[in-house]
Amino acid sequence: MVKKKKVIYHGREFIIELLDNQQIQIDGYVFSPKVVQQAENRFKVTFGKYSFILEKINGKFYLEGEEVDINIRPYIEVENSIINSNLPKNSNVKAPIPGKIFQILVKEQDIVKKGQELLILEAMKMRNRILAPISGKITKIFPKPGDNVFQDQELISIMQNSKE
């Protein structure tokens, strides 16, 4: 079963999904973190060669000992707002981290489903699957295989299906 949470971190909203295969998906990007519980409310989280300590003390979160402004809410609020909107929307898929485009798995005008792999981004000697955040039609693919991209650089534009 997939668990979803809406997380607000420093004023920015993220949808976090805990996938069944010990991976997490953040706004459509899949990561394979290694999480080791060191104490009841203390965890060491490792992404590739990067690691940090995350703690929860008296209802507050601390990252590497510093309190972080984070708010976690059930995902249902987000699902309800999506259901209530009938207008087609564009979703711009952006690079979660800097890297190199290893492979593009779709082409312009393709119809994709939410969660479908769009491309593979190679970063820190790891290949990261970039997934469609919504179902819809690919309207524009910006990079080519082999291109270097920056964090938050627009990769693919998707026009949401009007029935979603």
What can you see in these coordinates?
- It is a single chain.
- The protein starts with a strand and ends with a strand.
- The chain is globular, with a radius of gyration of 17 Å.
- The model is unreliable at 76-87 (pLDDT under 50).
- The chain folds into 2 domains: 3-74, Glycoprotein, Type 4 Pilin (2-Layer Sandwich), CATH 3.30.700; 88-160, OB fold (Dihydrolipoamide Acetyltransferase, E2P) (Beta Barrel), CATH 2.40.50.100.
- Strands 4-3-2-1-10 form a 5-stranded antiparallel beta sheet, covered by helices on one side.
- Helix content is 5%, strand content 57%.
- By secondary structure, it is mainly beta.
- A hairpin with a 2-residue loop joins strand 5 (34-39) and strand 6 (42-47).
CATH superfamily of the largest domain: RNA polymerase II/Efflux pump adaptor protein, barrel-sandwich hybrid domain
Helical percentage: under 10%
Straight-line N-to-C gap? 22 Å
Which ranges are low-confidence, i.e. pLDDT below 50, for 5 or more consecutive residues?
76-87
What is the total domain count?
Answer: 2
Fraction of residues in β-strands: over 45%
- The succession of helices and strands, N to C, reads EEEEEEEEEEHEEEEEEEE
Largest sheet: 5 strands, antiparallel
Number of strands: 18
Shape: globular
Number of helices: 1
Mean pLDDT: 79
Radius of gyration: 17 Å
State the CATH architecture of the largest domain: Beta Barrel
